[in-house]
């Protein structure tokens, strides 16, 4: 095999697709834990009209299979380095692409986890259009008021009925003024519970067509660190071609750039796949790492 791709969501499948079309022998490992699997639909993805995440990935699997990519439903927890090659899931390969992605740490508020991906979401660019001009509540991240304010301001572009709940954090006068000018109401009481259509504070019930939250993001896998790749601020460090600091190891999508939307992760992955193919071609022609 030429390449092992670890992670079978949008970025991993796009890497496999581009490399398969380049006539590379590719094996893709996927544990079925795509970050957006709880969502009802994938939005803001050109050419994709409201497919569920699982449906989009199923289409991707059919596409890569047409180019000889092997897909294995297996979680990879370790990669062995053997000289200039790697052993992944029992396969010896010349390059490894990490597309393991992130997981979201949700606010510790009753009801948030139950509604996650449906009545509770994170990204306005992904989910804001569907609830435009309706009552929306943004729950901030406790201890990070600057992030909470930024999200409240962002959400105000989708509706003129937005309430930012700081969950106990106090805001500065400048922050309050920004929110007031954007038409965002502010509640600083602790958030007690999220229910379908409502957010409950101390003695207050807020109507919410959709609840948006600020999440903390974590790498789903520590493979990059195990392989000796540099990791900074929770992301795998790469160059513009997805090359990590470990020769022969690449990282794509939110594994290296956590802020990417799904379509951005796919675009980044295709660029990195071109770099993988070019690097392997250099080796094929006698170059070295």
Automatic annotation (TrEMBL):
Catalytic reaction(s) noted: [thioredoxin]-dithiol + NADP(+) = [thioredoxin]-disulfide + NADPH + H(+)
Ranges for domain FAD/NAD(P)-binding: 1-256
A Pfam family reported for this protein in Swiss-Prot or TrEMBL: Pyr_redox_2
Record GO terms (molecular function): thioredoxin-disulfide reductase (NADPH) activity
Keyword Membrane appears in the UniProt entry: no
InterPro entries: FAD/NAD-bd_sf, FAD/NAD-binding_dom, Ferredoxin-NADP_redctase_2
Protein keywords: Flavoprotein, Oxidoreductase
Record keyword Oxidoreductase present: yes
Protein name: NAD(P)/FAD-dependent oxidoreductase
Organism from which the protein derives: Kribbella speibonae
